[in-house]
Design a protein that fits this description.
The protein is of the alpha/beta class and 272 residues long. The chain has helices at residues 40-48, 60-63, 86-98, 117-126, 139-147, 177-180, 196-205, 235-241, 259-270, and strands at residues 2-4, 25-29, 51-54, 71-74, 77-78, 81-82, 103-107, 131-134, 159-164, 185-190, 213-218, 226-231, 248-252. Helix content is 29%, strand content 21%.
C-alpha cells in the first residue's frame, strides 16, 4: 500500500471528464483502537477500499486490513497541529470523488460522536455525493468496557451524557454545567485533558460533591491503556502526577467506584 503522509501532495486530483461518474464515500468508524473491536462491516469496507483518508487516532494495526494496492492519505488532527484544516479535508474528499475516485473516510471511534462525521456527511449530501456510514464503537464504550467502568447501572446511573471539553473561541469550556452536574448520571468528557482543572471545578461549583468518583482512561483498549481513579477534587493533581496525555477520557459518576470490584473479574479473564 502507498502511504501519503502529506495530504497536500494529493490535493490536486485529476479533473473529471464531462461524463465521469463521481465516486462515493464510506464513512467508517475504526473503534477505540484495538483492531479486534472493528465491526465486520468496517473490515469489509477497508478490504475493498483503494483510497483511504485516515485520522490521527487510527492505529497501524487497523490499517493492516487495507489492501496492499490502496493509497492511504493521512489527514490527522492533533491538538495545535492539523495536517489539514477540517474545511480542507472536506474539500479534498469532494474533489477526489468528483474526479471519479471512491474512498473510505476512516475515523477513530465513531465518526458521528465528536468525530465531525456529521459535518462531512452534510457536505457530501449538499454536493450530491453518495455516501455510506459504518458506525464504530465509540471511545467511551471502549474505555468503560476495558477499564471496568459500566457507563450505566441501575443503582448508580440512569443517565449517560457525552460532552466535549474543547476550548471554545472565547477561551472557555462552554458546557451546560448545570445539566452535567445532575446526580445519578455518568458523564464522559472527550478531549478534555488540557482543561481538566476547569472541568472538575465547574462540576463541583454547580453541585456535584468534591468526593464524586472520577477517572481518566488513557489509550482505551490499547496495550498502553491506563486508568487513573480519584475524585473531582483529586483528579487534576493525579493527572499531573501520572503525566496523563491524550487520547484520554474523563469519566465522572458513581459507576467509577465499581471498578475495583469489576477489575477482579477482568483480570481473571485476561490471565486465562
Amino acid at each position: 500500500m502507498s502511504f501519503i503522509e502529506d495530504a497536500r501532495w494529493f490535493a490536486a486530483p485529476p479533473a473529471a471528464g464531462a461524463n465521469a461518474r463521481p465516486g462515493r464515500v464510506t464513512l467508517v468508524g475504526a473503534g477505540p483502537g484495538d483492531p479486534e473491536l472493528l465491526t465486520l462491516r468496517a473490515v469489509k469496507a477497508l478490504r475493498g477500499a483503494r483510497l483511504v483518508l485516515y485520522d490521527h487516532l487510527v492505529g497501524k494495526e487497523v490499517l493492516r486490513y487495507v489492501a496492499d494496492d490502496a493509497d492511504l492519505i493521512y489527514v490527522g488532527k492533533e491538538a495545535a497541529h492539523h495536517t489539514l484544516p477540517q474545511e480542507s479535508i472536506i474539500d479534498l474528499m469532494l474533489r477526489l470523488t468528483r474526479s471519479g475516485r471512491s474512498l473510505v473516510r476512516l475515523k477513530g471511534g465513531d465518526g458521528f460522536i465528536f468525530g465531525r462525521g456529521g459535518e462531512e456527511a452534510q457536505a457530501l449530501a449538499d454536493a450530491g455525493i453518495a455516501f455510506d456510514v459504518v458506525p464504530g464503537i465509540t471511545a467511551a464504550q471502549g474505555a468503560g468496557a476495558c477499564a471496568g467502568i459500566p457507563l450505566t447501572h441501575r443503582d448508580h446511573a440512569a443517565t449517560l451524557v457525552f460532552a466535549t471539553g474543547h476550548l471554545q473561541g472565547d477561551g472557555e469550556v462552554a458546557l451546560d454545567w448545570q445539566a452535567l452536574a445532575r446526580p445519578r448520571q455518568t458523564v464522559v468528557i472527550y478531549m478534555g485533558i488540557g482543561n481538566l482543572p476547569v472541568i472538575c471545578a465547574e462540576l463541583v461549583r454547580h453541585g456535584l460533591p468534591q468526593d464524586t468518583p472520577a477517572a481518566l482512561v488513557e489509550q482505551a483498549s490499547l496495550p498502553g491503556q491506563r486508568c487513573i481513579e480519584g475524585t473531582l477534587q483529586s483528579l487534576p493533581q493525579l493527572a499531573l502526577q501520572h503525566r496523563v496525555r491524550p487520547p484520554a477520557l474523563i469519566v465522572v459518576g458513581g459507576v467509577v467506584a465499581l471498578r475495583p470490584q469489576l477489575l477482579k473479574g477482568l483480570q481473571a479473564m485476561n490471565t486465562r
